[in-house]
Amino acid sequence: MASRLMELPSFDNIVASFSRSYSYDKTYQAIEDDSAVIIHSSGTTGVPKPIYLTHGFLGTIDKQTQVPVPDGRVSAIPNQLSHDDLFLSTTPFFHLMGIFALVMSIFNRVPFVYLPATSSPADALVEVIKAERPTVAAITPALVEAVGQSASALHILSTVRTVCISGAPLAPHIGQALSKTTNLVSILGASKLGLVLSLVPEHKADWEYLEWNPNYPTRMDSCSDNSSLYELVIERNETRDIQGIFHVFPDLKEYRTKDLFSPHPTRHNLWRYEGRLDDTIIFHNGQKINPIPMEKIIESHPLVSRALVIGDRRPHAALLVEPSEESSVSNGDKSAVTEFVHTIWPVVELANELVPPGVHIGIMRIGLSSPNKPFRTTSEGSTQRRTVLQDYEQEIERIYQHDNYWYTMFKNG
Fold first, then answer.
1. Predicted confidence (pLDDT) per residue in 151-167, tens digit
2. What stretches of 170-274 show up as alpha helix (H) in DSSP?
3. Residue 136 forms beta bridges with which residues?
4. What is the rounded distance in angstroms from the CA atom of residue 168 to the CA atom of residue 188?
5. Cα-Cα-Cα-Cα dihedral of 99, 48, 37, 92, to 10°?
6. E-strand spans in 4-101?
7. Is the pLDDT of residue 412 over 50?
8. Among residues 172, 124, 121, 130, which one has the least CA distance to residue 155?
9. Is the pLDDT at 226 greater than 70, yes or no?
10. Which of 6, 77, 267, 385 has the largest CB neighbor count within 10 A?
11. Is the Cβ–Cβ distance between 172 and 191 less than 8 Å?
């Protein structure tokens, strides 16, 4: 298919000219299933795909504001804001939260500010907060973690009344620090799924847990091979008014999200996001593990930018590490690579405690990324797992063939 180059008029040209009035007299019922906007998936589990959102899907954002919450409780979704609030969106308009900010602004007359595109989003976030003083912000966990590297930047973030996070787990030590100074709330939403209605936990210490609004039909199905993890299932209501997913898939009666959660150890109905069913690693003996908690522990080390636990159809786990900018590892320096691996080894041992001994990451099964081949990420800041695995296919083979290939892998990457 031949591509076409289209030049958009400048903003000044658009507002300087007059256009005739276009009447729109269709009813909501007539256009409910017509496409209103096209966004794309995040790309966490593969190549981003176009998603056609209908007028009915967008209408759920408005209708959800009318869903009651139990007495004395507060909705976790920031959809009860007024024109006195200022909502800060840090995600692009092709992402659900970017669309949410735009639609909420139209429906509820809530002003919002949008984080500009920049190579230093953490610095931009701090400057926007200082200049605009938003009351509520929706921020990706990766961006919160980047801000959390600086105590002064984290203090500025804490001036926001409510910080909503979604899309991935947040490093516990950063979440604990931020939750002491502001309202840190976990929410769940996705490009096709829409927003799943939940409640703010009654205890601030439970910031990483979600509690589903009982007026939004859900079910938690135990994973048969791992009783500690449960998959969220969306059950269809009598109407589709508050459930975006059934506007994307109108013939479904329920939707299996593939989102995995673990229950709170003592408090009923609280669920902590653990990752995706797609992320599950299945070893050659059938043993299954969720790599996300392990990766978050390893990424808590200041010398680690990103970590990727691997092992599908292998006898045991291995690790790919992208060193942080603070790391002194230099390409081809065997002693520096060896020192780096031994420096981060204590956090790898902590991560190993989460899985059976037979599949532990061995110290000789740690590979470093190449500076010329950084881990690819989504617009939310999450690692594109499948893409990185493809990018490093040969290096991964060397790890398992030689079991001591830190240096060769890094040098030849």
1. 999 999 999 999 999 87
2. 172-179, 245-248
3. 87, 162
4. 9
5. 30
6. 35-40, 50-54, 87-89
7. no
8. 130
9. no
10. 77
11. no
